[in-house]
Write a structure and sequence with these properties.
GO terms for molecular function: hydrolase activity. The chain has 241 residues and is α/β, with parallel strands linked by helices. 34% of the residues lie in helices and 23% in strands. The protein has an 8-stranded mixed β-sheet, with helices on both faces. The two termini are 22 Å apart.
Length: 241
């Protein structure tokens, strides 16, 4: 186990002052880096711990903010902010680029070796960065199987891994089919893993507030999805080249 150093970073995006969580591995050398995007409720200790876990593996990791330091635990409030955001690729890209700039500016980051891992809305943002042609080494999206504007997916320059629960009513079979058809038509290097019996946000530990219908934790699949993401990073973003 390596010693991880963490700090809070403030930056501006979407007209808000965002508060991200940066995790650094031991040492002073440059390392590959991972951008970590949260679910629509916003940045929480769940994503902070995931950034820390990635730093334990040797990556520089930034868990980025969606809502200016707020966590939207009331479903209606979360939907009121996220639905317009998910309908606006340019806004999503702006949020992603602002976080990416912070990650690239970190002296420990190798700016030529960056991946994006996102959950829900954070996963949609990771995909939009890819669709805008950002030079990423890998994109992983968990229950964020969004489709983009016509023709733009062909700009994705890296492997795309996607995970979804079979019983997810938000990322329905029709949404899955649209996502995979878009990836295939674009000639992307893509994979989709469907976790049997899992609901939306199956990766996220239980919370102490109300959630949307169809949201639920699946401990086994949460662990499996994490291992799948780590395997993707091991393949596409090794410590040395």
């Amino acid at each position: 186990m390596t010693t991880v150093t963490t700090r809070t970073v403030a930056y501006t995006a979407d007209g808000l002052t965002m508060t991200g969580h940066l995790a650094l591995p031991a040492g002073a050398d440059r390392r590959p880096a991972v951008l970590v995007g949260p679910e629509g409720v916003g940045l929480s200790d769940v994503e902070r711990r995931r950034a820390d876990a990635l730093a334990e593996l040797g990556y520089v990791a930034l868990a980025f903010d969606l809502h200016g330091g707020r966590y939207l635990g009331v479903p209606e409030e979360m939907l009121a902010r996220c639905m317009p955001l998910l309908a606006d690729p340019d806004r999503m890209r702006d949020i992603g680029y602002a976080a990416l700039d912070v990650l690239r500016a970190e002296p420990r980051t190798d700016p030529d070796r960056i991946a994006a891992v996102g959950y829900g809305t954070g996963g949609a943002i990771a995909l939009e960065l890819g669709r805008d042609g950002v030079d990423l080494r890998a994109i992983a999206t968990v229950n964020g199987l969004t489709t983009g504007r016509p023709g733009e997916t062909a700009r994705i320059r890296c492997p795309v891994w996607a995970g979804v629960g079979s019983e997810d009513p938000i990322m329905s079979p029709a949404q899955r089919d649209a996502f995979t058809a878009e990836m295939q038509a674009a000639g992307a290097d893509w994979r989709l893993v469907v976790y049997g019996g899992a609901l939306h946000a199956f990766h996220h530990p239980p919370v102490d507030h109300s959630v949307l219908p169809g949201v639920g934790h699946h401990p086994q699949h949460a662990q499996r999805a994490w291992r799948d993401i780590v395997d993707l990073l091991t393949e596409c973003l090794p410590m040395t080249e």
